[in-house]
Structures are given as C-alpha cells and as structure tokens.
Amino acid sequence: MSKDAKPAHKRIDQFFSGPGSRADEWRDLVEAAKVWARVGNRAVYDAALAELSVTEEFYGYPGLHLMAALREAASASDGATSLALATRITQALATRSFRQHAGDWSATDDGNGEALELVPPMFSAHTARRPYFETLIVTGVSSSQWPALAAEWRKLRRPIDGFIYEPVIVGSLEDAFCATMLNPNIAAVIINEGFGLRSRHNAPVLRSITASAGLNDESDASALRLAQIIKRVRPELDLYMISNRDVEELAGNPEANVVRRIFYSVEELLELHLSILEGIQDRYDTPFFDNLKKYAQRPIGTFHALPIARGKSIFKSDWIRDMGEFYGPNLFLAESSATTGGLDSMLEPTGNIKKAQEKAARALGADRVFFVTNGTSTSNKMAVQALLAPGDIAIVDRNCHKSHHYGMVLAGAQPLYVEAFPMTEYSMYGAVPLKTIKQALLGAKADGRLDRVKMVDLTNCTFDGHIYNTRRVMEECLAIKPDLIFLWDEAWFGFARFSPFLRRRTAMGAANDIEVWMHDPKSIAAYEKQQAELGKNPSDELLLKTRLIPDPRQIRLRVYQTNSTHKSMSAIRQGSMLSVKDVEFHTVEQQFKEAVFTHASTSPNQQLIASLDISRRQMELEGYGLVANAIEIAFAIRNAVNNNPLISRYFRILGADAMVPAQYRQSGFTDYLAAGVNWANTLKSLDEDEFCLDPTRMTLVCGTAGFDGTQFKGILANEYNIQVNKTSRNSVLVQSNINNTRSDVAHLIRVLAEIAGEVDRGLTQGGANAKKTFEARVKSLMTDVPDLPNFSHFHPSFRGDAGAKTNEGDIRTGFYAAYDAAGCEHIRLDDLEIDRRLKAGPELVSANFVIPYPPGFPIMVPGQVITQETIDFMRKLDVKEIHGYDAKEGLKLVGAEALAKIGRPKPGATPKLKAAS
C-alpha cells in the first residue's frame, strides 16, 4: 500500500507491510520521543506507541515486558526514559543484536536493573552463538497469564541446545494467522485447544478472507483447522498440537498429517521443547555441505585427476599463490573429483547428495528434485530429452529460452509454437494466452493427432515478470487431454515458493492444489455438472470461451519445474534445480537418468552442489522473511521513482496495468501500489486473473529520457556501478532479490535523480535545438518502434506429416540442414534480392536460430519461412548482439535444391503428403 493510501490507524491486514515498514514505525516512534523531549508534545508519541503496540504482540522481541515498560514510562510522563528505551529497542532490531545479547532484553541501560530476572536464561554473551528463532504459542488461557507462561518456556532452555528461541503468545485464530503472516522469525507453532476465533484488533479485510474460507463462528476455531490454514500459507513451519481429548483418534486422522507431532495436555513439556529443536535441526542439516566441511578437515592423499585439490599446487607456487590468498584454503581443501570416501556422485547419488535432494523436494513441494550444476539451460534440455521422443509434438512458447528450442532439436520433437501477446511499445512480449494454447490442442484433436501432443512447455514467470495462472492453464489443458506433461521454466521464479501470495502461481504450488482438488468429492460433481451444460458435442467456440473443468478420475498429473536457484536464492552461478511431480515418473525414470548422463558433467563443482544444499536450508528457515523483504524493496523503488517530481519527469516503472492488458486482469486489479490494495483484492487477482505481474521485476522506462535500453544499462554499469540484467529498445529491467537492502534503493534513487537532473539541465540550457533533438530521440525510441514479428510457419519440407490445423514442424531436420554448407546460401540484410524473393519467391527459409539481444527471443528458427515483418524488424533493430546472424555474411538460408532434397521421400520409404503450411 502506498504511503498516500495509508490508513489513519493501524490495520494488521495491510498488504505487504513487511520488515522495512516495521523498522520505519520504530524510527517514527524514536523521532516522536525526540519531539516530546524537545518541545513537550507527547500526543504524537502516544499515538505512535499505540499504533505500534498492535502488531508488536506478534513478535518475540521486544516482547510483552519491554512493550509494557514503554507504556509505563509514557504513563509516568518520563520522556527521557521513553526516548532511551525506544532508541535501544530500535537499534537492537536494526542490528539484530537482540538475537545474541541479553542486555537488549532489559528495560534498563546496564542490564542490571529490575528487569534482569526477565532476561531469557541461557541467553547471554558468554554462550556460543546459536541461531535464534521464535515459536508461536496459540492458547486459550487468559492474556494475564501469558508472561508467566513465557517464563515457563524460557526455563526449558539448556546450554547444550543448538538453537535458542523466544515464545510469542496469542489467543485467537485470527491473531495466530496475523503473527504467522507478519513475523518472519517464527519457525515453529504450538497449537493448544480452547482459543477463540476473532482478533482483538481491527481487521475487516482479514475477516472477509477468513469468512471466505468458511470461518464464520467460534466453532470454526479448532486446533486442526488452524493447523491446516498455517500449513497452507507457510508450509515450511513445524506444527505441534496439544490436545486434552482423545489424542489417539486425532493422531489417526489423515487431516492431522500437517502436524509434526501431537501431545496430550502438557504432560511432556520438555519433550515438546526437544521436538521443536529437532524439527529446526532437520531443516538446518545440509547433508552434502556438512559432509564436505568434514571432508575438508581430513588429511587426504589425492591420487586423482584434480591437481588443485588440497591446494598444494596453489600455495606452494610463487606464481599463482595470489589465487589461494584470494579464495582462501577451504575452497581447495573441499575440492575433489572423488565420489567415495564420504562423498557422493551427482550422476548416481546414493548418499548425502541424495539426502540433500530429498530435503530440497520437501522444501519445494515436489516429489523429487534433481540438482543441476550446468544452469537451468541444462535442466530444460534434460527434461525435454527425457520426456519427448522423435515425432512427439510439444506446444511451446515461441519466446521461451533458447534451451527449450535446442532441447526440441536434441529430442527430435516437433514444436508447435504459440505466440505471447505483444507489447509493441516496449519491444517485448508478454505471455501466451490460454485461449491460444487451447486452440492448439483443439486443432490437434480435430486433425486426429491429439495423441501425439505430449507436452505444454511455458516460461513462468517471463523475463519481464508475467506470471501465468498455472493452475487454470493445467486444469483447462487436462480437460482436453488428461495425460499432458507440463514443463514450466521458472528460472526467475524459484523464490515464489516461499511467498504465500505467489506460491499458488508456481508449477509445484498449482500441482499440489490440483492434487488436493482431485481427491475432493465435489470435484467429480463439478465436472459432471459442466459436462451436462456443455452437451455431448460442444463446439470449439464454446470450449474456448468456457473455463473447462477436467475429469478428476482421468487426470494423470505430470508436472516438471525448473528454476535457476542462483537467480533468486543463495546459490553459486549455474546452480539449478529440477522439480518433479509426476505420477508416471516410474515410466520415464530410466530415460530421465539417460538425459542426466547426457548433459550432466562427470566432474561437477563441489562448491556449487554445496551452495544448492545451503540455499535450501536458508529458504526453509528464513526464506519467508527474505522474500517479503525483496517484495517490499521493489515497492519502495516503485514508489520512489514514480513519485519523485524530478525522476518521474524522465523515468517511470510500469505498473501491472501497463504490463498486463485489461482483458487478462479479470478481477479488475490495477497495481500493487494502487490506493486501497490489500490482501483480499490481491488474493482475488492471484486466484482469478489470467496473468499477474511479479512484484520484484520492474520495467524502468528510459526511452522517455532519451536513452535506449542498451545505452542506459551501460551508463548505469560503467559510471555508477549499478548492474541490471535485461534491456529492451526503451527500457531496462530492475530486479529486487533476497540480497537487496534499503541502502541499495537509496543508491539507485540517487543515481536516477542525478541522471534526470543532467537531462533536465541539458534541456534547460541547450535551447530550442537541444529540445528538438531530445524530442526526436524520444519519439524514435517510444513511438517509432518496429512491430514485433510473430512466428510464420515451417517450410513444407520440414512439415512432414503435420496436420492441417496445427503448425508444428521438424526443427531437428531444419537444424541439421545448416550442416550442409553447399546446400545453404547467404544474403545480406540490405540486399534487394531479399525484397524480390519475398514478393516473387523462392521462399527464404532460415537455416539458423536468429536471436537478437534485446529482445532475446528467436525471431527465426531453423526451417522457418522468413516473412516481410521479420525482415522489417531486423532492419529496424539497432542492437549490436544478434546470435546466429553474421552481418558480413548475411542471413543463412537453406537453398532451394536442399529443400527439394529434404522434402523428397528417401529411397524405399513410404511417400508422405506434404501438408500445406
């Protein structure tokens, strides 16, 4: 929610009011205390403290005691104490020192005053550093007993415990939900019976959400219901239940599977404490990394082919010792090409790599996960090769990453390209409309070729942040063909698993939701009702405009998801994971292994594997808070750019309403920063809209400042040490991630203000000619943009036995046609021969993938017939980097004789009719 739309009083359901917002509120309290001390205005301080107190109930620190101390100081009109205590708490929160230092928990400066007995035991500077977390306790006991209850929990701490935690106590389902959503430090939840439903605080939108979930009266506030709600929003949390009733019956209830352990009453409080620590330890363990650390400390003689192992060739050298000094000894001590002696094989994991992958599968909501050390390009090619055979048809986004296209070449599969909606003004494409995908399936069905369509292969989210409604896409496609395989390239979206808002839009999140729906008896009734409404032979037109419901009895759920772990988590570059949820995996397991053998290195980097293991640990234990912070950082950047009078004159960040056409935002959602945005309307958009925008991906328009994307990217990098990734003709892509801080935001905004100021001064001081030149440049970048070319069609020589209503082609034959140098020709782009042949023939057929950067998608693929719009686009391009095109040689084309030869039946083969393109 933007600051302009901030409510007059605190609302605990405010959308994306995350860690930064909390820090700002504490700083506001300190400033109000300073004003009180300086001019005697206490009212502002009292209001700020009252507002802050609402949400601070949901955090372990500063906790009940320190918040009470703040209120007591205010009631006693003690401004000096109020300022001192508020300042210390704010500093402790900012530096996170409260996690290790007992003094931060005291209400007095020296830590020796009246509050000392309330400092958590075994929580001092004399103990070794231990990771800190907070445990949510949901209870029905009176709030007056909470301090005593917290003290009892603290007494359970022991010096030998590997972790230390602070209790957070709430007394209602709504408060438990709020604490879970607002407090990223919570890592475990204890649910007692007997709590109420309603929060004590104002949360009208929150209540509308709980009402939509069927939570309408106090009888809905059951421990099991709360456990299911929490597990849905934060599946990484360990849940424990304490019951005074028949725990045996409860433990046998399948719905209680969300709970890690059930206890009877409070008879075994120490066991519960130990269970909490064990649950954290299970997530903290990193099987491969832990073993690699032990391996590095062993005295090992290496007689294998890796000279840098143990580092002796580095540190004994006069010439390359600086490399060892730069990286440190552990990098080399931990290197090995061995797969024995405690290590494991990436190709055939049976030990700690296998265990690490199993933990990753749990974290990502998959049945199994494969670690990949060659990047997601390799993950994609592995999946395509394993799941498709020569002649299989795959529906593919034409604008997907090149690895998918090359995967089709390797597999011999026939891509049926589908087009994303164009965003011509910004020289980029969005995502593929569901209607387009359904039309491709229905076309194959009409041709009697639906059995050959094996896969739908899409990018989620796209480079520019377009997110599919993954569940709807899969359900409607499965309604047409119930055994379709889905490959979702989520290279940029791996972090989304750890956001309760975005998780539903991930491949694994949607697959798990579909799986739950399939086992709901209501699913069959919904399917049969729709079938009755559609009739026996519904027209394609009716099917295209209907939100189709699949038959849950026929679905074979087969979902694959790739993510570039290094792009959104703390993994070393090229670290990738391939997640699988496939009921038929046993039928493709062997060929999947063969794909791994084909593409995976036999000498993977040990440090890279370790970083994949570590990244999983981090995201399971603190990913929720890190992702929330990344989203909040993105909102801070959007606000600062678009609301700054100078910066917004020349730059702007596009909102969801500019990035997603209105027809794909069925809920009416406009943007995350629009006035009145909250959880309810955001969730409605995430559930209903065909496309959403990833909030962490920001398209910064620079063409209005007279810069093209490539030029502006270079200015940011070379002159200001700011790195961005993708560019378009008139924009650059700014991306926030779990690594960013508010200091990064400040640096970016300062730089944009400086550049905007230079542009402004240049126009002011340059006179009419400068203004005229600037306007012409902006017009060239923002108005005179080339139309984006769609995929045309494959030449009949590469169509084989293709159907009449679909447009797939034999890309593999087209690819290898380029290997016949004598059968190919080159024509320069400016040669008039191109224009003559476009009008009179013979057709121009590409022998290569041609991929300009930007926009980064193939405007030509092998075997594609080149059209006028593609030539026009290439001639208007002003980018330097075009893969697959040599400006000196020109376009590489498959010659007419070679085409005729390819299209001719081979001796002894059964002639095939060439379908019209």
UniProtKB/TrEMBL annotation:
Outline the extent of the Orn/Lys/Arg decarboxylases family 1 pyridoxal-P attachment site domain. 286-513, 558-735
Q: Does the keyword Transferase apply?
A: yes
Tell me the domain of life: Bacteria
Keyword annotations for this protein, in alphabetical order, are:
Aminotransferase, Transferase
Under the heading PANTHER family, the entry gives:
AMINO ACID AMINOTRANSFERASE, BLR3474 PROTEIN
Give the required cofactors: pyridoxal 5'-phosphate
Official protein name in the record: Decarboxylase
Q: Which residues form the signal peptide?
A: none
